[in-house]
Amino acid sequence: MTSLTSRIDAELQRLRSAGLYISPRVLEAPQRPITRVLGREVVNLASNNYLGFADHPFLKERARQFLETWGAGVGAVRTIAGTLSIHEDFETQLAEFKGTGSALVLHSGFTTNQGVLGSLLQEGDLVVSDELNHASIIDGLRLAKATKKVFKHKDMQDLERVLLENPTDGLKLIVTDGVFSMDGDIAPLDKIVEIARRYGAVTYVDDAHGSGVLGEAGRGTVHHFGFEHADDVIQIGTLSKAWGVVGGYAAGTRDLRDLLINKARPFLFSTGHPPAVVGALSAAVELIQREPHIMETLWDNTRYFKAELSRLGFDTFGSETPITPVIFGETGAAFEASRLLLERGVFAVGIGFPTVPRGSARIRNIVTAAHTRDMLDRALAAYEAVGRELGVVAG
Questions:
Q1: 346 strand-pairing partners
Q2: Above 80 in pLDDT, residue 395?
Q3: What is the pLDDT averaged over residues 160-183?
Q4: Contact of 200 with 172, CB cutoff 8 Å
Q5: Where are the CATH 3.40.640.10 domain residues in the chain?
Q6: Of 201, 238, 277, 310, which one has the fewest beta carbons inside 10 Å?
Q7: Beta-carbon count within 10 A of 370 CB
Q8: How far is residue 129's CA from residue 123's CA, in Å, rounded to a whole number?
Q9: Residues known to be catalytic
Q10: What does pLDDT average to over the chain?
């Protein structure tokens, strides 16, 4: 008989043997462009804090106000007694920002995918998913009873092939990330929506890395392509990356919101967000509209960093967004590069198989609006030294 101890020990050993065992780095200072890791001040290129909001004074002050006025927590699930007026006020603010009829906030982008996909899809439906979609989409689809098919990454011919080969009288849903988290490329949403409409399908966009980054004032990938008012495009995303706090959202028609309130299990069985979280999120959406230069700085920094990496001879895999992979090939090389960068004062994490395909191990860098040119130059100097030491760029 297998004991609990032997099961845990065996699984941990399997992870260590496969090189998949994780020991998270611990930040010893707030989430800022310069933070502290292992007692060392480092340039932080590892976070999703695109707009520098995670430690922004405006968000912290609003969180403090909401904490003092509304308390530390809400004490119930949203559908019983855990919906405060501030929750619905923020959801109205978010819907207006996104240009949709409504919005509903859940605890995370991960649970939002589970809740929305589980609520929408039934037996007899067809869902077609990009092969590089996020793990939360994959897990959300595992819980759904619909027929599940995958199309090659951003391959519109393959998308059409899958739709043609799988006719159904049920709901047809095409699911894609807006911005792909490992490569930093943007989904061809204009082409996807056109194909979806031709086949009577609905387009579902996970905009975790596009919200706050693309579109006017960071309204996202859907806005970037001009589909924000389309009833056949569903937007979901996180409030924990560019917005600097925590949570997920689904934005679409009023009926979609009502359906999720009644059927989305992560919403039905989770306590509502604490008031301080709601206050900080409200401040984030307000701030990006009031100070558009923040996004301009994000993109200025992104263009500069990419151009300099390319000049040094690094392969950034055609990234189109602040997500900037630097390819090192094999997993061991990427992990060693990450270690050497940390020794030189740069915190950037190596990523290898199975998160990315074999031979494309990389360090994923995320440039933010809070980085200064001096910080980026320090990181670039470290990259140049490490690249030469590992033979990735010419010496």
A1: 43
A2: no
A3: 97
A4: yes
A5: 57-290
A6: 310
A7: 24
A8: 17
A9: 181, 209, 241
A10: 96
User: 261: Cβ–Cβ under 8 A, 6 or more apart, which residues?
Assistant: 78, 79, 104, 267
Query: How confident is residue 353, by pLDDT bands cut at 50, 70 and 90?
Result: confident
E-only strand ranges, the chain: 34-37, 40-44, 102-106, 126-130, 147-151, 172-177, 202-206, 233-238, 248-252, 323-329, 346-347, 349-351, 361-366
The whole-angstrom separation of Cα 158 and Cα 138 is: 19
For the chain, where do the domains classified as CATH 3.90.1150.10 start and end? 26-53+292-389
pTM of the model: 0.95
Residue whose token pair is 């706090």: 245
Classify domain 26-53+292-389 by CATH architecture.
Alpha-Beta Complex (3.90)
284-321 pLDDT, tens digit each:
999 999 999 999 999 999 999 999 999 999 999 999 99
Strands 233-238 and 248-252, how do they pair?
antiparallel
Quick check: 382 and 341 in contact, CB under 8 A? yes
pLDDT at 33: 98
What is the fold of 57-290?
Aspartate Aminotransferase; domain 2 (3.40.640)
**What is the spatial order of strands in the sheet that 102-106 belongs to?**
102-106, 248-252, 233-238, 202-206, 172-177, 126-130, 147-151
Q: How far apart are CA 290 and CA 123, in angstroms?
A: 45
Mean pLDDT of 78-90: 98
